[in-house]
Amino acid sequence: MFRRKLSALDYHNPAGFNCRDETEFRNFIVWLEDQKIRHYKIEDRGNLRNIHSDEWPKSFEKYMKDVNCPFKIQERQETVDWLLGLAVRLEYGDNADKYKDSTPDGAKNTENTAKNAEPLINLDVNNPDFKAGVMALANLLQIQRHDDYLVMLKAIRILVQERLTQDAIAKASQSKEGLPVALEKHILGFDTGDAVINEAAQILRLLHIEELRELQTKINEAIVAVQAIIADPKTDHRLGKVGR
Q: Taking the CA of residue 139 as centre, how many other CA atoms within 13 Å lie in the half-sphere pointing to its CB?
């Protein structure tokens, strides 16, 4: 858990450091004070350097107080992490000109990848502007209102992907030639006594059937969209957030 900070400080064994090993831990504290923190004058570091002394824990506890470490001596991992953070800050302060323009290797790529993978991860769902924007989009796209604004935003995304992409718009824009319909093959089921009215009734029935089919298609699309939202393991509606 300390590998990155140890590497930044040029520690000789960042991957294998074990703070639970007493000897290794004491040597590490001496190295940290001698090389990075340098809170004591050289002549005042004798007790801390005497790692084989039975009094070393007391010397280390005093050292923690002197550097204003907020943790107790028993909280070893927290103490090590805090001391490493202090050392990194001091190291940066001593070499500010060297580090101010540097960029970690792959940092930009990693950041961009993370943003692309989880575009909703940093959204503040309680922000009034966010809620207003989602509601405006939902009204514009005629999407059913939901108490969870993230669910609404997810539904908006699905609709945009399926219906408003360039391919979807191009496909919808293509003209469709209607097929000729032979009215005599469609039985009306009743007779008005007037051939013209019978034909008009047949046409109305066919139009009604077409409307029912279109409605069923929209219902199926809505079901698919809801299932896609519910089945997404990265969306937790109870917590009101996206991401593991």
A: 6
**CA 185, 186, 188, 193 torsion: positive or negative?**
negative
Tell me, letter by letter, the H, E, C secondary structure of 126-148.
CCHHHHHHHHHHHHHHCCCCCCC
What number is the average pLDDT over the span 22-32?
A: 94
| Tokens (6 digits) for 20 | 């639970």
Q: Which residues contact 225 (CB under 8 A, 6 or more apart)?
A: 155, 158, 159, 162
* R_g of the chain, CA atoms, integer Å: 35
Region of 10 please: left (phi>0), alpha (psi -120 to 50) or beta: left
> How far apart, in whole angstroms, are the C-alpha atoms of residue 203 and residue 211?
12
pLDDT value at residue 117: 45
Give dist(CA 216, CA 142) in Å, integer.
17
If one compares 94 and 36, the residue with the highest pLDDT of the two is 36
pTM over 0.85: no
- Of 42, 18, 16, nearest to 30 by C-alpha is 42
- Do the bridges between strand 241-242 and strand 235-236 make them parallel or antiparallel, or are there none, so unpaired? antiparallel
Report the Cα 145 to chain-centroid distance in Å.
Answer: 24
User: Could you tell me if 48 and 59 are in contact, meaning their C-beta atoms sit under 8 angstroms apart?
Assistant: yes
Q: Are 191 and 198 in contact, with CB atoms under 8 Å apart?
A: yes
According to DSSP, the residues that pair with 242 across neighbouring strands are: 235
What's the CA gap between 147 and 129, in Å, rounded? 16
Which helix (H) or strand (E) covers residue 116, if one does? helix 107-117
CA–CA separation, 49 vs 30, rounded Å? 6
